[in-house]
Amino acid sequence: MQIKTESNLVFFPNPILKQIAKKATVFGDDLKSLTEDMIKIMQKHNGIGLAAPQVGKSIRMFVCAELNKNDPIVFINPKLSNLSGMESADEGCLSLPGIRVLVNRYTSAKITAFDVSGKEFEMNGNGLLARIWQHEIDHLDGKLITDGIPGW
After folding, report:
1. Is 152 inside any structural domain?
2. CA 24, CA 64: separation in Å to the nearest integer?
3. 93: domain range?
4. Cα(95)–Cα(78) distance, integer angstroms
5. Which of 5, 36, 53, 100 is most buried, taking the most CB atoms under 10 A from its CB?
């Protein structure tokens, strides 16, 4: 089986996409460099979120930018809480090009994470932003939007 990559972006069926990512424990130049690369890759592919496993790294980290509403934000070792509401919406994934799946997600969430310097922060998000967080954390847990579809 050949694993396809493009500019360090990995695609299904790369096995790293189905693994639970490891917690980041060292905050330094390597991690900062990885986040900068991930932001460039996400932007190159017109994405709004990208998790470290999607670039072949088993680290609990993702970057996101909600449709040019703000600069990309880095979330390291993220945890969600205060989940509420529910909505079904069509989702795509950079690691599954051309695939769209109807996915149920919470409409509101609170996220606690660390930035690249190791400082903890919290944010509240609604709508698309909350959806992005859930999608990317699914990647960190080895889950894909196609997991509920027979044959995937």
Report:
1. no
2. 18
3. 5-140
4. 20
5. 53
Mind telling me the catalytic residues?
136
Question: In the chain, how many domains are there?
Answer: 1
Q: What is residue 148's predicted lDDT score, i.e. its pLDDT?
A: 76
**What would the pLDDT profile of 12-48 be if each residue is shown by its tens digit?**
999 999 999 999 999 999 999 999 999 999 999 989 9
Supply the pLDDT for residue 33: 93
Instruction: Answer yes or no: is 102 within a domain.
Output: yes
Alpha carbon of 3 to those of 47, 59, 92, 133: distances in Å? Answer: 21, 20, 20, 26
Residues in the chain, total: 152
CATH number at residue 125: 3.90.45.10
Tell me the pLDDT band of 51, cut-offs 50, 70 and 90: very high
Task: Give one word for 35, left, alpha or beta, with left for phi > 0 and alpha for psi -120 to 50.
Answer: alpha
Confirm whether 60 is domain-assigned: yes
What is the C-alpha to C-alpha distance for residues 5 and 92, in angstroms, rounded to an integer? 18
Phi, psi (degrees; rounded to nearest 5) at 31: -65, -40
